[in-house]
Design goal:
Elements lengths: L1 E4 L5 H14 L2 E2 L7 H8 L4 E4 L4 E4 L13 H10 L5 H6 L6 E4 L6 H10 L4 E6 L2 H13 L5 H9 E5 L2 H6 L6 E6 L27 H10 E10 L4 H5 L2 E2 L8 E7 L2
Parallel strand pairs: 1-2, 1-3, 5-6, 5-8, 6-7, 8-9
Antiparallel strand pairs: 3-4, 9-11, 10-11
Helix pairs in contact: 3-5, 5-7
Length: 260
């Protein structure tokens, strides 16, 4: 993979690019007014991570659309919470102010953002991601993205992103160390109409959740272990979750295990 910048980069952008290239074991290449296609061809690399003044942009190939951090539907969901409306994940998990939440499969951190807002300044969200490039994109986004609402931006900043495999990380934790443990693995049966998830599939960990990991989560959680999957997924039964009632037309469903 190549790490580069836009044309005419600032000193901060150059420093960020150098830091990320070192972190990811990638090649740091100066842009020198070349298009991404020219850069990829001349350097013999398809994958590109471009540092801009506001974000990181990942290209699986120079002709592909960029992948970057954006709160997307999480922002809409938080705005609904601000109005006093319910969010299914918050309701079903029982998340409340002051809670400690462990998001084992952060991805783009959309659910971490919603949990962070619901848990509030006295709570905390730790967001685990096992894939280094995805982790870097989301970590930088959570640390730099500015929304139009100060309390929502503060919720982004409170999230603690960690590069870690959740199965191994759970084993290191004491009993009852989080109120809620959450899983949102890549769906076994993808929701293909989800345009926001499609670019993520090339970067995310595709491995299915295993029963032993769920048992570790039950040990770590004080109250609830919750999983998101496709509505009719057999994963709920396979892993021992109680399927939650949702609208028949909903593509996404949740399963819970109450451990309190």
């Amino acid at each position: 993979m190549i790490v580069t910048t836009t044309d005419h980069p600032s000193a901060v952008m150059l420093d960020t690019a150098a830091r990320l290239a070192s972190e990811l074991g990638a090649r740091l290449v100066q842009r020198r007014r070349r298009t991404l296609g020219q850069l990829a061809e001349q350097e013999g690399r398809r994958e590109l991570l471009v540092v801009t003044s506001t974000q990181l942009r990942y290209y699986g190939g120079p002709e592909e659309a960029p992948f970057y951090f954006h709160p997307s539907m999480a922002y809409v969901r938080v705005k609904r919470l601000r109005k006093g409306e319910a969010d299914p994940l918050i309701t079903l998990s029982g998340c409340r102010p002051g809670d400690k939440v462990l998001d084992c499969t952060a991805g783009l951190a959309g659910d971490s953002i919603v949990f962070s807002y619901a848990a509030g300044p006295e709570g905390s969200v730790t967001a685990l991601e096992s894939e280094p490039v995805l982790h870097a994109i989301v970590r930088e986004g959570l640390g730099n993205y500015e929304t139009e609402l100060d309390d929502v931006t503060a919720a982004l900043r409170r999230i603690r992103p960690l590069l870690a495999d959740h199965a191994e990380y759970l084993k290191t934790l004491p009993d009852n160390s989080f109120d809620i443990v959450y899983f949102d693995p890549m769906f076994r049966d993808p929701v293909h109409e989800s345009s926001s998830i499609s670019p993520l599939r090339g970067l995310a960990n595709p491995d299915p959740l295993n029963a032993g990991t769920v048992q570790e989560a039950m040990r770590v959680a004080r109250r609830t272990v919750i999983i998101k999957e496709t509505n009719n997924s057999p994963e709920f039964d396979r892993l021992g979750f109680v399927r939650c009632p949702v609208k028949k037309t909903s593509a996404v469903g949740y399963g819970v295990i109450h451990v309190d």
